[in-house]
Amino acid sequence: MPVEAPSTLLKRLLAAAGERQLAPTTLAAYRRAWTQLLAHCAVENLDPASLSRDKAAELHQQLTRKRSASHHLQVKVALSFLNRLLDQSNPFSDCLAPRFRAEATEMQFLVY
Fold it and tell me: Which residue has the higher pLDDT, 61 or 95?
């Protein structure tokens, strides 16, 4: 099967996301994650539909470096959406997000 052009794939993703009537901020965040992933794949001449788990973990790390746990989860959901659209297994499913700041939560309980 021929590799789909990144611009065509992005249009398909946006159309599918439009059908789900996502909030504008969510759509913007997903679009950012999809654009970054597709750019990485284009530069490295990779097919987003057939990424290995190791390559997916590497790309996930690049997309989420020095970001919050909630950003990690948001990127993971966007990439899951991409793989559902491609009808492929999700190589990003094993990528771990950092824990939410447990020390902040613990301190919150100690204050009360």
Answer: 61
Over the stretch 30-55, which tens digit does the pLDDT of each residue have?
Answer: 999 999 989 988 888 888 888 888 88
pTM of the model: 0.74
- What is the token pair recorded at 10? 């992005």
Q: Which tokens hold the place of 80?
A: 């899951």
What is the distance between the alpha carbons of residues 103 and 98, in angstroms, rounded to a whole number?
A: 13
Report yes or no: 85 and 49 within 8 Å, Cβ to Cβ: no
Q: Where along the chain do its domains lie?
A: 6-111
34, 82 Cβ separation under 8 angstroms: yes
Instruction: Please give the CATH number for the structural domain made up of 6-111.
Output: 1.10.150
Q: Which residue type is seen at 2?
A: P
